[in-house]
Design brief:
Layout (H helix, E strand, L loop, with lengths): L1 E5 L9 H11 L4 E2 L16 H14 L2 E5 L5 H12 L4 E5 L6 H4 L5 E4 L3 H15 L1
Parallel strand pairs: 1-2, 1-3, 3-4, 4-5
C-alpha cells in the first residue's frame, strides 16, 4: 500500500517530531511516499515551487490512501486533501485541539478524527487500516 502523509510544512514545523513518529507508525501498513515531512530540518531550497508541486502531485496520484494531520492550518494540506477528494482517494484527517476547519470536519466524503496523544493517534490509525482490511 502506498500512503500519502500530509502535514504542515511552511505553515509551521512545530509538529515535525510528531509527524516523524506518525510516519514511522504508518510504515507498518505500507510505503510512505512523503516520509520527508517528518524531517526536523526539511530542506526545500534545492527545489522550485513548481518542482515541489509536481513531485507532490505525482505522489498523491500514486497513493492508495491519504493520511493528513490537519492540526496546524496549512493551505498546502487543504489543497492536497481537495485534490485527493477529486481523485476519489480514501482520506483520513487527524487533529488535536478543540476544532478543525468546518471545511474538513464537515465534509462527509472522508473521515476526521480528534486525538490528543501520539498513542491515541496510533490507535486511530490502526483502526483505519484494520477497517480497510
Amino acid at each position: 500500500m502506498k500512503i500519502y502523509f500530509s502535514g504542515a510544512i511552511r505553515g509551521g514545523r512545530q509538529d515535525a517530531q510528531l509527524y516523524q513518529e506518525i510516519i514511522a507508525h504508518l510504515k507498518n501498513y505500507g510505503e510512505v511516499l512523503t516520509e520527508h515531512i517528518g524531517q526536523m530540518d526539511l530542506q526545500e531550497d534545492n527545489l522550485s515551487d513548481v518542482q515541489i508541486h509536481d513531485q507532490d502531485m505525482a505522489w498523491l496520484t500514486a497513493s492508495d490512501v491519504i493520511i493528513a494531520d490537519v492540526t496546524v492550518p496549512s493551505l498546502g494540506v487543504g489543497y492536497e486533501i481537495g485534490r485527493g477528494l477529486e481523485m476519489k482517494k480514501p482520506i483520513y484527517c487527524f487533529y488535536r485541539g478543540e476544532k478543525t476547519s468546518a471545511m474538513i470536519s464537515g465534509c462527509q466524503d472522508f473521515k476526521t478524527f480528534k486525538y490528543e496523544t501520539l498513542e491515541e493517534v496510533k490507535g486511530l490509525i490502526d483502526g483505519v487500516f484494520e477497517s480497510m482490511g
